[in-house]
Amino acid sequence: MASNFRSYIWDPVLIVSQIVLMQCIYYSFLGLWMAGVDSLVQTSRSLDQIFSYNVLGFATVQGRLSMMAFILNSLTCALGLWFFIRRGKQCLDFTVTVHFFHMIGCWIYNAHLPGALSWWLVNVACMALMAVIGEYLCMRSELRAIPVNSGPKSNL
Asked: Where are its TM segments located (predicted)?
């Protein structure tokens, strides 16, 4: 008797839909975190805060708060991995994919690859946080004990 427990079936529609979902989670929550940061320092909102690598930096308060928003967003996306991907082995794959598409978006927006060291440091740190925390949460769910109900217990 073959078991269907953890059977793997190649499903490209599922994979593409999960990638699109994670991108939506990434940008929607990053927008919410940026809006919260903007309300703290009363600055105007723009796409530069998300896609321009010049905004992220240690020199200005706005740059440090934007970096904080990116880091908080990685924690939120780790929850997204836990809720929607649910596989510890796939967390790193989806994390790298989300950040790769973000790098492509920044490349298109700025017309060249990001050149600021702070942009690279923030994105590598966010990738690490998102992958490790997402994998930890998924592994906790995967390793949870499976209850086996074998009927009423008799006291012999």
From this structure: 12-35, 65-85, 92-111, 117-138
Nearest Cα neighbor of 52 from 106, 108, 131 is: 106
Task: Single out the residue of 95, 113, 94 nearest to residue 105, CA to CA.
Answer: 113
Residues near 44 by Cβ (< 8 Å), separated by ≥ 6?
A: 38
CA distance from start to end of the chain? 32
The closest of 57, 99, 56, 62 to 77, measured between CA atoms, is 99
Residue 139 CA to residue 142 CA, distance in Å, equals: 5
Among residues 68, 59, 1, the alpha carbon closest in space to that of 30 is found at 68
How many whole angstroms separate alpha carbon 34 and alpha carbon 20?
A: 21
Token pair, residue 142, equals 């995967």
Spatial contact of 91 and 85, defined as CB atoms under 8 Å apart: yes
Q: How far is CA 43 from the centre of its chain?
A: 26
- What's the predicted TM-score (pTM) here? 0.84
Q: Which residues contact 150 (CB under 8 A, 6 or more apart)?
A: none
